[in-house]
Structure formats: structure tokens, C-alpha cells
Specification:
The protein is mostly beta strands. Among the domains are: 129 residues, no CATH class; 178 residues, no CATH class. It contains two helices and 47 strands. β7 and β8 form a beta hairpin.
Length: 560
């Protein structure tokens, strides 16, 4: 594995709940799901099985590549999108700002954080680190690249795009090392940034003890080494002095395993992990870099990038991810019977961004089952998220209970959202585009509700049924939603296990699907609307103020 420098370029989150481009709060009106769940129609099923099938098409020949993915000027149906990123009149004087104070360590994979002021751009920029240059793909304002770093001198970083460039200089620092292993007690439970922490073999934090990791700490883990948390872990990084866990000597380490304990991870980054195959977990059979079983994990900021394993895993766990980047990991995360809350997360290039087809269950997130607490099901929430460029599904739902609000899901090789087995998922105020299929209610009896969404430029927009032999007996309910400009079908009722169409399986109201079967019925409108780069309808577009609730059809964009 190479010595890497990773750049995190962050811009405007996907869909919008305000017509003000600077407002990124997409969580308006979460409804009863957050407060205690709603009664989903369609019931539950006892069938078991895997994730959604490959329903045709392919990543390499049918989906946009990173180089031609949508920029603000090509989103919509020909209307004014609010200006493109090549318009000199709207270029900021300094389009990127470096917001970190990393002290490079030769031999480690080192993340760098950069923020874009250009807007929700999807384009390629050139990143130069020292005397090395690399093309880096941005996905709605965010991207990452990898670089070899050598020596301990200060390193110049330059980001160049059609909107201008930004330069900065980051420092380098050699530190003495402190080697730890085994069960930690006493002073070994406090890690400070005066020395690099070297984990030479597995380390355990026992019950009743707390590991405190100070800001700016760098942890070098030997090959396949794991940090097992049976007690508590508090990693207290800051944006100015983040914490880094990385592989020593470029040999993939294991991961952080929270086994009945808890881990608070503030501004903490993980690279080069997930290399211990004895702890492989989930469909793609790789080790999670951060795993919890009957434990609690909270990650604020930071991220998991350039790892051979999956980013996150959980079983009977509570996992909260806020403003986190996941990129170039085997899978974004897989969770069984867990309560998962993601807000402001970017999950991109899963498992990589090479544009080649793969079939290894590389989902951005896979949710199986639901946590039961005091007899009630906990609802997992995915809000303000961007899932972009994945080789399987964006959200793979299997008998889970999920609310999605304010998502932008684009360029998935299979489904943007794939639901199966039972329970249900609500998707609202979200944009789902340029996937093989947009949103699918598949085998078993999942109840899928789509409300105020923009589902466009997929091969199939909305589908009931899938390609498995198991019958689909659930329900697809669509309201206040736009599903147009999908190359094969805007709406498809076709289930292989049932031998074709399933009568009554789809209900569409107050929507625009440009389909003669639905137009003019249930308050549905004909025509093709126009929208901007945030998914909001343009003034004068069909569908303005025409939803059942008086808002726009499609993404409900509030404000002046």
C-alpha cells in the first residue's frame, strides 16, 4: 500500500429544503417516524435473502463515468440551472479553503481537509502536492485523492479547477514513538500528541476503563492489529488537530472493535484498515474498520478513506455518523439489527472510482433488520446525505425500518434505493438520478413510501418487483414526486417471482411520471418539469405549488 495524502473537498449537500443555495438543512418535517414510528401498510414477511439483484445494465457501458457526471449546468430539463461552474462572472476569488493543520508523518496515509466555495459541483480538478499532481473527481463539491509523501519538510498543496485555484503549505513533524500492546491500564490509557502511538499487537480496553486519545494524536497500527474496546474510548480530535489511525509500514491493520463498550470519535480519520480477514463481516466478506457489537459508536466529523475493508459494521449496535466522509472502502457500512443515524455524510467511490463493473455487494449502506428496544422498533435515519459512484446500491434495505430525508443518490450500478423482505422505508425530499434503477420495492413485503422526490435519468425510475424468484408482495406508494426522463421506464410494475405485473402494488398520487396509465388520475399531472442544480423546480415549471400539500411537486424547497 502506498504512502497517501488524502484530500477532502466538501461543498453543498445534495437535495434541498430551501431555495436558498446556502441553506443545507434538508430535514424539514421528519414526521412520525422519528417520534416512534408509523404504521406501514403491507405487513412483514418471513422470507430471508440477500440484497437486490442485478436487473440489467452495467456500470461501464450504461452509467455516467466520473468525467462526465452531472455539473450544475446539466441538471434539469433544459432550463436555467442558476449558472455553471465555468462562468467567470460567478467564480469566487478563492474557491477552496484548507481547514486543517495536519503535521505530516512520513510513512502514514495522511488526510487533508479542503472546502469548496463553488457550490454543488461534480467535476474534475487537479491537486498538486509538492511536485506530484493528480486528477481528483469532485462529487457535489467533495472529492479525495491519494499521494505519496516523503521527507519531513513543509509541503505545498495546490487545488486547481476551472473556477480558480487555492494554495497552502502544511507542516511536517517527526515524533518519537510509544509502543503499546495487550490489556491497557493506568497511564497507558492516556494518549497524547508528544509521541506517535504504535500498536505492535492487539490492544484491549477492559470493562470499567476509558481510553482517552488527545487531539493531534497519530496511531500507527501493525499488520492485522485490532483495538478492542470493551470499556469506553474517547478520541477528542478537533478540526485544527484531528486524530489519525493509519497502517504502520504500509501493511493493512485491523480495526476498532467496540464489543459491548462505547466509542466517541471526534474528528478522527482512519486509513489503511480492515485488513484482518478473521473478522470479515457481512455480504462483501471484509473486516469493518470500525465495528460495534452490542455497543455504541459516535463519529463526529473525520472519515474513513482508502481502506481495503468496509468502513463500518454493526450488530445490535447504535451508530451515529455526522459530517463524515467515506470513500474508497469495500463497502460504506453494513448493519444488522442496529440503530443507525447518518447526517451530513458523504459516501462516494465505493469501493473505488475506476468505472469498471464489479459484483461484490459494494453498497454505500446496507441495513438488515431493526433494533428492538422496549418492544418498539428503532427507526434508522439517513439525512442530508450524498451517496455517489457506487458499484452496487446506494441504500440496500432488507427488512429494516428506515427514514431517508434530504438525500442525493447518484451513479449507482444497481439501485439508488433497493428495499426487500419486510418492514419499510420512507424516502422524502431526495434526488435519485443516473442509477440503473432509482427506487425499487423488491421481493418479500417491504412497504416503500416515496414523498417529494426527484427520480430522473435512471434506466428505470420507480419499480415494484425485481429479478429474484421470490415473490414481491409489498407496496410502493408514491406522492408529490417527479419521475421523468428515465431511459426505459418512469414507472415499472414487473416482478419475476410473480410472473410479471402485480395488480394494485403501486399507488401514485399528486405526482408527475409522464405515463398515460397515471397521468390525470389521483391528482397526477402530465408534462416534464424543469429543475435547478439543487433539485428545486424553476419558476414557471409545471408542478409548481401543485403537490397534495400545496408545495412543489418533487423536492419540497422552502423559503424565499
Amino acid at each position: 500500500m502506498k504512502n497517501l495524502l488524502v484530500l477532502f473537498l466538501i461543498g453543498v449537500v445534495g437535495a434541498c429544503s430551501s431555495s436558498d443555495p446556502n441553506e443545507d438543512d434538508l430535514t424539514k418535517d421528519l414526521g412520525e417516524w422519528v417520534d416512534g414510528g408509523i404504521d406501514l401498510e403491507g405487513g412483514e414477511a418471513d422470507q430471508v435473502g440477500g440484497d437486490s439483484a442485478d436487473d440489467g445494465g452495467g456500470w461501464a457501458d450504461e452509467h455516467v463515468s466520473p468525467d462526465d457526471a452531472a455539473t450544475p449546468e446539466d441538471v434539469g430539463s433544459g432550463g436555467d440551472s442558476g449558472g455553471g461552474d465555468d462562468d467567470a462572472s460567478v467564480r469566487p476569488a478563492d474557491p477552496y479553503s484548507v481547514e486543517t493543520a495536519w503535521k505530516f508523518a512520513p510513512g502514514l496515509l495522511t488526510p487533508v481537509v479542503i472546502r469548496s466555495a463553488v457550490g454543488p459541483i461534480t467535476k474534475t480538478v487537479t491537486v498538486t502536492v509538492g511536485n506530484q499532481s493528480q486528477k481528483v473527481q469532485l462529487y457535489r463539491g467533495l472529492g479525495s485523492g491519494s499521494f505519496v509523501t516523503t521527507g519531513s519538510e513543509a509541503i505545498a498543496v495546490k487545488v486547481t479547477g476551472t473556477d480558480g485555484f487555492t494554495t497552502t503549505t502544511l507542516s511536517a513533524q517527526m515524533r518519537p514513538e510509544r509502543t503499546l500492546s495487550g490489556v491497557l491500564t493506568g497511564d497507558d490509557l492516556v494518549w497524547t500528541d508528544d509521541k506517535d502511538i504504535v500498536l505492535s499487537s492487539d490492544v484491549t480496553i477492559p470493562q470499567g476503563e476509558t481510553l482517552t486519545v488527545g487531539s493531534g494524536v497519530r496511531v500507527k497500527a501493525a499488520a492485522k492489529v485490532n483495538l478492542v474496546v470493551e470499556g469506553a474510548m474517547e478520541a477528542l480530535g478537533t478540526k485544527e488537530e484531528p486524530i489519525l489511525f493509519a497502517a504502520k509500514d504500509n501493511n493493512p491493520w485491523g480495526g476498532v472493535r467496540v464489543m459491548g463498550g462505547s466509542a466517541l470519535l471526534n474528528e478522527t480519520w482512519f486509513t489503511g484498515g480492515g485488513g484482518d480477514g478473521t473478522f470479515a463481516f457481512g455480504h462483501s466478506k471484509s473486516q469493518p474498520v470500525v465495528f460495534a457489537q452490542s455497543g455504541v459508536v459516535t463519529l463526529n466529523g473525520g472519515g474513513v478513506v482508502d481502506n481495503p475493508g468496509k468502513a463500518f459494521g454493526g450488530k445490535d449496535a447504535t451508530v451515529t455518523l455526522t459530517d463524515t466522509l467515506v470513500s474508497r472502502c469495500d463497502t460504506g457500512g453494513e448493519f444488522e439489527d442496529s440503530w443507525v443515524n447518518m447526517n451530513g455524510a458523504y459516501v462516494v467511490e465505493i469501493p473505488n472510482g475506476d468505472g469498471l463493473a464489479a459484483d461484490d455487494d459494494n453498497d454505500c449502506v446496507y441495513l438488515v433488520g431493526a433494533m428492538i428496544e422496549d418492544g418498539a422498533e428503532r427507526v434508522s435515519t439517513l439525512t442530508n446525505i450524498v451517496f455517489f459512484a457506487g458499484k452496487d446500491d446506494g441504500i440496500d434495505h432488507n427488512n429494516a425500518r428506515v427514514l431517508v430525508d434530504g438525500a442525493w443518490i447518484e451513479n449507482m450500478a444497481h439501485e439508488g434505493v433497493a428495499a426487500s423482505n419486510g418492514r419499510g422505508i420512507v424516502v422524502k425530499n431526495s434526488v435519485v438520478r443516473k442509477n440503473n434503477q432509482g427506487i425499487e420495492a423488491g421481493y418479500g413485503a417491504p412497504d416503500v413510501v416515496v414523498d417529494h422526490c426527484l427520480v430522473v435519468e435512471n434506466q428505470v425510475g420507480l419499480r415494484f418487483g425485481d429479478e429474484y424468484d421470490w415473490k414481491a408482495t409489498g407496496k410502493l406508494t408514491v406522492k408529490n414526486t417527479i419521475s421523468v426522463k428515465n431511459s426505459k421506464n418512469n414507472v415499472l410494475n414487473d416482478d419475476t417471482g410473480s410472473g410479471g405485473e402485480v395488480p394494485g402494488a403501486i399507488d401514485i398520487q399528486c405526482s408527475m411520471v409522464n405515463d398515460s396509465e397515471w397521468d390525470g388520475k389521483g391528482g397526477n399531472l402530465p408534462g416534464v418539469p424543469s429543475w435547478d442544480s439543487y433539485g428545486c423546480l424553476l419558476d414557471g415549471s409545471p408542478g409548481k405549488n401543485a403537490a397534495c400539500d400545496g408545495n412543489d411537486v418533487g423536492v419540497a424547497c422552502f423559503g424565499d
